[in-house]
Amino acid sequence: MDGTFNENDLSRVVEADRAHIWHHLIQHKPFETNDPRIIVEGKGMRVWDQKGKEHLDAVSGGVWTVNVGYGRESICKAVYDQLMKLCYFANTAGSIPGSNFAEMLIDKMPGMSRVYYTNSGSEANEKAFKMIRQIAHKKYGGKKTKILYRDRDYHGSTLATMSAGGQDERTAQYGPFAPDFVRVPHCMEYRKHELDGAPEENFGEWAANQIEEVILREGPDTVGALCLEPVTAGGGVIEAPEGYWPRVQEICKKYDVLLHIDEVVCGVGRTGTWFGYQQYGIKPDFVTMAKGVASGYAAIACMVTTEEVFDMFKDDASDPMSYFRDISTFGGCTAGPAAAVENMRIIQDENLLQNCVDMGDRMMGNLQALMEKHKVIGDVRGKGLFLGAELVADRGSKEPVDEKQAQAVVADCMAQGVIIGVTNRSIPSRNNTLCFSPALIATADDIDQITDAVDGALGRVFG
């Protein structure tokens, strides 16, 4: 075997995959008797598998990434041209695409000023965690090392980011975890009845006040940062209720707690603004991003912060321990920022932020219509082209459907040629939310095809 395949010899590709590939998030036992799925080609909103079957992709590459769609020749050309000129140099030095994209990015993020390049969302979040810990030593005498994170939020798959993981099924069997990561309650209004003492009114402010209670319990002099998703993604597509974000910021300011917003999913257009935090008037100290930064055309992630934070690491050069002593090897790849520059240009020139708003409104309306038709839908929620529909066995009690039924809806849509998502191995007995994140290029026909497929699937699975 020479390691190359004729593109028409897909049977060999399937067998090589079965024999050698360890896929993400999949139990491989069924592959002993069933073929793994191979995605062969993508164009626009659609992908084709090894059997030639066409699918409309309603989850942007399976994990909310391909924001501008497949087959963008201009991005591919930008990457090719850059790689021919300079493929890599460690980020101890600069590069032309690195400088270009940083300037473009900061222009979209008033109040932020510095970009630290890395290669994955997990790693971007770890960079922020490390900076927070180093600030605790530099400014607070080793105190304020604790980092708060929220129930149902997700920040990555490394041991440190799982230490800040609010999804218990994702972290199960991987402990023990790093110390000084402390959980705060979720802010999911639909399931506020599961939180002790939650009020019927002003829930958003109450949920934020639970963060203050944790800070007081832990000791304000020990808490350095709060890490939150602007819209909780894999934990159920949860938008914070009214009153939450203003109170969160008041609390952070009161107790000198840095605010870290994880935009790995929401960043670069997904909610209809460049970043999800901009929907809610949030002024963060750290913003991390990955998936949509280059729409999957090259690996890139960024940790972005303020000049005030940056200045904390600019000390007398005579102190060899004063700066941020960190490196990300593949943060020096030039393909990522080259792709990101063109990705951002496409979003601007094609007015995709507005399309995200318009098509998000259409999809929300379609899902609300399905909710009126199918009692199994208990709630629809989200922002822009990032939406969820929670399935329940009973609307009164809000008892979730069996997870196998939610998975059956996904499988039925797949059989119809539409790929949708569902919360998976995240929250015990709460993996019951259908997830939708089509590319920002989606048309009205695409949106209708997605929700029509869900309509048919719900009718067949639940009768």
From TrEMBL:
Q: Which Gene3D superfamilies match?
A: Aspartate Aminotransferase, domain 1, Type I PLP-dependent aspartate aminotransferase-like (Major domain)
Sorted alphabetically, the Gene Ontology cellular component annotations on this record are: cytosol
Record keywords, A-Z:
Aminotransferase, Pyridoxal phosphate, Pyruvate, Transferase
This protein's cofactor list reads: pyridoxal 5'-phosphate
Name of the protein in its database record: Taurine-pyruvate aminotransferase
Any GO molecular function = transaminase activity
Q: Which organism is it from?
A: Ruegeria conchae
**What Pfam family is a match, any one?**
Aminotran_3
Q: Which family does it belong to?
A: Belongs to the class-III pyridoxal-phosphate-dependent aminotransferase family.
